[in-house]
Automatic annotation (TrEMBL):
The keyword Zinc does not apply. It comes from the Bacteria. Residues 1-24 form the signal peptide. Keywords: Lipoprotein, Signal. It comes from Saprospira grandis (strain Lewin). Coiled coil: none annotated. The keyword Secreted does not apply. Residues 474-549 form the Secretion system C-terminal sorting domain. Transmembrane segments: none annotated. This is Lipoprotein.
């Protein structure tokens, strides 16, 4: 059945209906029980009642415009294709009522099922006069493959998608039975038109333009920033309602495929007090006062680094000096990645999904005042680290850490501190184990005599040139357990690693392959007796031997 002239049929019928009474929804339904319906490009189709799409052979090939004044029903067999637009509006029929979508107007699976087992919309416009379109069912009820417009043409107000029956709203996101999805993997918010994202921390004046309940988004394998315009029902300030905006920023390659999120109030994220944010004692957890954002990935085993930025709305947080995003009721992600406000707070270095909350502190335990930290390339040969302290109080030593990605840091060296001083103290360390044209990130771990510690800000330096000395380093050294070999190489190589004890007996060997730059290789030294060991790393054009002291 081709519907390029369906508009004319409805209009001719409408005169007869209007001469008898007002529009009657169930007298003007579009019912497809297994047929192919084609809406041609340029065609306008107006359904003054409900739309039903049922059956394994039911297919809507939709490249035009379909306007529906009633509700939309389907089963999980019906399929939908094309690049057309569907609008839900009730300016002629069902005025003053909400509209719903039921069944499976969705991609039935992950991204690989798009266009294969798929009842999803291409473009969906929302123009209900009550500002509510809701999903009637469980699981993935409705998806769009291109755009959703929360304030479609003819709308009296921006619409909210509710993933539950609005007559019996769940208190929290976990209990919302249905899921709305944006299965366009393009990053950003451009495919969620006329949303009411607000980043000033006060959503009490915004009732619509977001997904109330559960929202899923398709994620590009190449990464990008994905905003989740989700929350709970609107309410007054301080009630943690309205849109609780959050975005996920994927730094690069990942295999998460599709990620579903919701917001849950009163979800405790308490854990043992600990130092973070460069020496602050974390002693406040905002889960019970505000709530947490909960996410699941479609595969259940996705991987890839990402950052989280949150905009908690209408919160009742106490005043605190520093804030951080928590993951799974713990401090995770990049160490000391903290902020001064819960609004627009970001933390990097996460991997894997579950729940995110907020924690904070206003007590700084580390009393040692670091003036500065600088990293300077010297004669294109090595990187010189210089730092100073203005005040030292029971400071034991500095642990210099280095990273190639500003996320994963490893121990480089240790420098003893003056300990107790009210004068400026200067320190220096030279790092010769560097290659040209590589960014090296450095930070200091300030360790106190009682074992507490804090971190410095991160600095970066880079050598520019053709060559650099190749080297290996063993750490920790001395070692009480396992140790690591840090190999600095200017090229890929096949290596042989051999370990000899103090009398020259071979006790361990393994083959390895290096990449350009730094590479860490584990040494299973945990069960080796205390003593001196020689670590030999050899290739046809490269050989070095280092000593390792095992303490016990």
């Amino acid at each position: 059945m081709t519907l390029n002239n369906y508009k004319k049929w409805l209009l001719s019928s409408s005169f007869l209906l209007l001469s008898l009474s007002s529009w009657a929804q169930h007298n003007n339904e579009l019912y497809n029980d297994g047929a192919l319906i084609k809406v041609q490009a340029g065609a306008d189709v107006y359904v003054m009642g409900d739309v039903h799409q049922m059956g394994a052979t039911a297919l809507m090939d939709h490249d035009g415009y379909l306007e529906v004044q009633g509700n939309m029903y389907s089963d999980n067999l019906f399929q939908q294709r094309g690049t057309g637009t569907t609008k839900l509006i009730n300016d002629d029929v069902n005025a003053g009522q909400t509209q719903f979508i039921s069944g499976s107007y969705a991609v039935r699976g992950g991204q690989a099922a798009t266009g294969v087992d798929d009842g999803s919309f291409y473009n969906l416009q929302l123009a209900n006069d009550q500002g509510v379109v809701w999903l009637n069912g469980t699981g993935n009820v409705a998806d769009v493959r291109n755009t959703v417009d929360f304030n479609g043409p003819g709308a009296a107000t921006a619409n909210r998608i509710i993933t539950a029956d609005p007559s019996a709203l769940p208190t929290n996101g976990a209990a919302y039975p249905a899921v709305f999805g944006l299965m366009n993997p393009t990053a950003g918010l451009a495919n969620m038109l006329d949303n009411t994202v607000n980043t000033n921390g006060n959503m009490s004046a915004f009732d619509n333009g977001y997904v109330q309940g559960k929202l899923r988004r398709a994620i590009s394998a190449a990464g990008g920033t994905y905003g989740y315009v989700l929350g709970l029902e609107p309410a007054a300030a301080g009630a943690q309602r309205g849109m609780q905006y959050i975005h996920l920023d994927f730094s690069g390659a990942n295999n998460y495929d599709v990620i579903t999120g919701y917001f849950q109030t009163g979800l405790d994220n308490s854990f043992g007090s600990q130092l973070e944010c460069s020496g602050y004692q974390i002693d406040y957890w905002g889960g019970l006062d505000h709530g947490q954002w909960v996410f699941d990935d479609f595969t259940g085993a996705g991987a890839g680094d990402y950052a989280v930025r949150v905009w908690p709305q209408d919160d009742n947080f106490p005043a605190k000096t520093v804030w951080l995003v928590t993951k799974d009721n713990a401090v995770a992600g990049t160490a000391d990645d903290c902020g001064g406000s819960p609004v627009s707070l970001e933390r990097t270095g996460f991997n894997g999904f579950s729940q995110f909350g907020l924690a904070a502190a206003d007590i700084l335990l580390a009393q040692n005042k670091l003036l500065d930290l600088e990293a300077t390339p010297i004669e294109n040969n090595y990187i010189q680290l210089d730092w100073s302290t203005e005040e030292e109080d029971d400071l034991a030593h500095f642990e210099v850490e280095r990273s190639l990605d500003n996320s994963q840091f490893s121990f480089l060296d240790q420098v003893y501190a003056q300990g107790n001083s009210q004068l400026i103290q200067d320190y220096q360390l030279d790092d010769y184990e560097v290659l040209p044209n590589v960014n090296y990130y450095y930070r200091l771990r300030l360790v106190n005599n009682d074992g507490t510690f804090s971190y410095s800000p991160t600095v970066v330096a880079r050598l520019y040139g053709e060559t650099a000395e190749e080297n290996i380093r063993i750490f920790p050294n001395p070692a009480s357990g396992n140790a690591q070999i840090d190999i600095l190489s200017s090229q890929e190589r096949d290596l042989q690693i051999r370990v000899f004890d103090a009398i020259g007996q071979l006790i361990y060997e393994q083959d390895a392959q290096t990449q350009v730059g730094h590479q860490l290789i584990q040494l299973p030294a945990q069960d080796w007796p205390a003593g001196l060991y020689l670590i030999q790393v050899a290739a046809p054009d490269f050989q070095q031997t280092k000593e390792l002291i095992k303490t016990h």
